[in-house]
Amino acid sequence: MKPFVHIVQVYYEDTDHSGVVYHSNYFKYFERAREHLLGVDTLVRLWREEGIGFVVYRASAKYREGAVFGDRLEIRPTVARASDYRALFTQDVWRPGGQKALVEGQIELCCVNRDRQLVRLPKLVWARVLD
Amino acid sequence: MKPFVHIVQVYYEDTDHSGVVYHSNYFKYFERAREHLLGVDTLVRLWREEGIGFVVYRASAKYREGAVFGDRLEIRPTVARASDYRALFTQDVWRPGGQKALVEGQIELCCVNRDRQLVRLPKLVWARVLD
Amino acid sequence: MKPFVHIVQVYYEDTDHSGVVYHSNYFKYFERAREHLLGVDTLVRLWREEGIGFVVYRASAKYREGAVFGDRLEIRPTVARASDYRALFTQDVWRPGGQKALVEGQIELCCVNRDRQLVRLPKLVWARVLD
Amino acid sequence: MKPFVHIVQVYYEDTDHSGVVYHSNYFKYFERAREHLLGVDTLVRLWREEGIGFVVYRASAKYREGAVFGDRLEIRPTVARASDYRALFTQDVWRPGGQKALVEGQIELCCVNRDRQLVRLPKLVWARVLD
Are B57 and C55 in contact (CB under 8 A)? Predict the structure, then answer.
């Protein structure tokens, strides 16, 4: 898989009164980066045609430095197959040209159908990111 | 209808880097107050059993003063029937004991079924707030 | 001023359990579009060097149709000087190639300094959008 | 420390189009519960008078079951002193009377001053929660 970068612009909405990005918002950035990595069109088709959606079952982040209003962040996700049912994403947040990630995230996902029953990770998704 | 007040505590999550509550968050406060005014249990039953949900079709707010971290705000909603299909809520935001509303909101709602077709406002809702 | 378009991708985070974008999120989209129209770098410089920020004092939206997960929306802002202290933005939300705006927004802004005192709209901003 | 429970009502704003609470929102619930555990008034005074704020430097959650619109959740935080500079919160999410936590969270916090320099955890905070 070639390196993938998703850019996030930090707006007023992202920050809190302490002056930096509110901690839980990085999990939104991670989701955006994952969706672009997997392919938004693919995810939409899976959802509409097969009723398959993604569920986060574990999420963690380590925060080293706060991003601020006006930052243009790079979210760099990688993905590995943890099992036939689970995918593990590593998703770090960088300032362009920075020496160190501002935030390091790990997200574990599974897929569910319309009845919220666990299903195998769709081949379509894996084909794209693992080849 | 007797006066109704819904209390909202302002947390880190509500503020932005300018030091006050981010403007769009008041629309969330308005929704919370509306739901408690109408009765959360009633709304949940309508949604689960009849597939009826609420849709905002017009929303406006006038901002006079910014609320800050630690404020404990009073959201004071009133509601009027605009037609068989539309309800009009006035929802103002006060500091306890304040002389003037910090924010003044107006929200117009309608109801839709599972296919997002317009339906009449459910009697259950009106009985509660207009009697 | 030449027409300006800001693209917003709709993610899981933007939607609610009724299946469409949660109504207050459009106000976030409007802010993003405004910031890009005015120039993020300019706004950051104003904030850091002069302590000047933007405050919304009136916001309204009319909702015609709900956007859904996977939509790639066009936010089309225009701006007019309402006075030396106020700017009025019209910000509509379109699906590419659509016949009608999904949402129509109007936002009135003013500028404040670090003490939250009203100041004139900075020339820098006007030069960019009105020339 | 006596057991502490903070109640969170799940509104439209909290859910996403898959029908359950969006995963990052639990981190907001955790923050709210922490603030009430520590005392909102105390935190406000620390912030305004001494410029001391809280910074999350590690956050994780394990999701077992999704909460839905209308749920009234119990957030049950406990706190331990990890060092003079760090506090460790365990924060689980329950349905009232449930057999198992829906979500289990762990948050590590430190305190910073106005210059975002690390400072010792304020005694005021510890006195309240550890006695």
Answer: no
A28/D contact by beta carbon, under 8 A: yes
B5, two tokens: 């007040």
With contacts defined as CB-CB under 8 Å, which chain A residues touch B68?
A: 17
Stated pTM of the model: 0.96
Looking at residue A38, the DSSP 8-state letter turns out to be: H
Asked if D9 lies within 8 A of B40 by C-beta distance, the reply is yes
What type of residue sits at position D56? Answer: V
- Residue type at B107 in one-letter notation: I
Instruction: Write the residue in D19, D57, D61 that is nearest to A62 by C-beta.
Output: D57
Can you tell me the distance from the alpha carbon of A55 to that of C119, in angstroms, rounded to the nearest whole number? 47
Q: How close are the terminal C-alpha atoms of chain C, in Å?
A: 6
Alpha-carbon gap, residue C75 to C67, rounded angstroms: 12
pLDDT tens-digit profile of C23-36?
999 999 999 999 99
The residue count for chain D: 131
Which of D35, D48, D75 has the most B C-beta neighbours within 10 Å, making it the best mutation to test the interface with B?
D35
Q: Are B6 and B77 in contact (CB under 8 A)?
A: yes
Question: Which tens digits make up the pLDDT trace of B57-98?
Answer: 999 999 999 999 999 999 999 998 889 999 999 999 999 999
D16 in catalytic set: yes
Select the residue of A23, A27, A66 nearest D23 (Cβ to Cβ). A27
Q: Is D67 on the interface with C (CB under 8 A)?
A: no
Q: Which residues of D touch B9 (CB under 8 A)?
A: 32, 35, 40
What DSSP letter does each residue of C67-112 carry, written as one string? --TT-EEEEEEEEEE-SSS-EEEEEEEE-TT-SS-SEEEEEEEEEE
Domains of chain D: 6-130 (3.10.129.10)
Q: Please give the structure tokens belonging to residue C109.
A: 């802004």
- C40-63 burial, b at 16+ Cβ within 10 Å, e below that, comes to bebbbebbeeeebbbbbbbbbbbb
